[in-house]
Amino acid sequence: MEQAYGAGKAGGTFDPITFFQQPPTILRILSWIFSLVIFGCIANEGYVNRPNEEEEFCIFNRNQNACNYAVGMGALDFLCCAAFMALDVYFPQISSVKDRKKAVLADIGVSAFWSFVWFVGFCFLANQWQVSDPEDNPLKEGGDAARAAITFAFFSIFTWGVLTLLGLERLKKVSFEEEYNKLFTPHTPPPFAGQAFFGFQKYKLGSSSSLFSQDYTDPSQDPAAAPPGEAEYTGYNADAEANYDGSGGYQNQDY
Prior knowledge:
Blueprint: H1 16-21, H2 23-45, E1 47-48, E2 57-58, H3 64-90, H4 97-130, H5 143-183, H6 192-205, H7 238-242
Antiparallel strand pairs: 1-2
Helix pairs in contact: 2-3, 2-5, 3-4, 4-5
């Protein structure tokens, strides 16, 4: 099998150009950038206050949970992308088909999870931004950061969703490779000791290898070598022995 899980043959060398041209790698880098943007926007400009207040509140309707969700999920998404990119780099060195299948299943599960997380995050942030009171932010600070976080949360739904679909396609390839190895596993050759014993028996018998051929037929079981069915034994013929002249090499002995 030349490829499995979008990677080269097991044990192959790492090719950076080919690696960064693969669709899963491109989508993972985009998801990594999106998570960094969401985390940075909310962490830096996601908290504002009124002119007469000292304490800062979340820009999303002063709902602290909204900002915590965006910052926490953005940081975890960032780390998750980095971890799976490292796995993609190491993947060509995995020779076991079962281990490859486990990696693909983990990728599918994580990708589907993050697609759902950002769907919830997009709906949550968009709703809280829509109901925000303009009087809570009279200077309109952090508005661009809030809209950027909502936008990239929306994009992250599709990047992780496509990664889930690509993972399902790779799972089919790895499953096919697993079934192929089960069906076409090479037979184990006979041990050397058995071959040596078989040859020694042939030497002791002094027989040619034709006796050990699968085409050998027992003469007693060969219809062509058997006497005709109608031939009958007529008994001992004394006259034939008396009249035999010995021309065949046999000499009659008189006792």
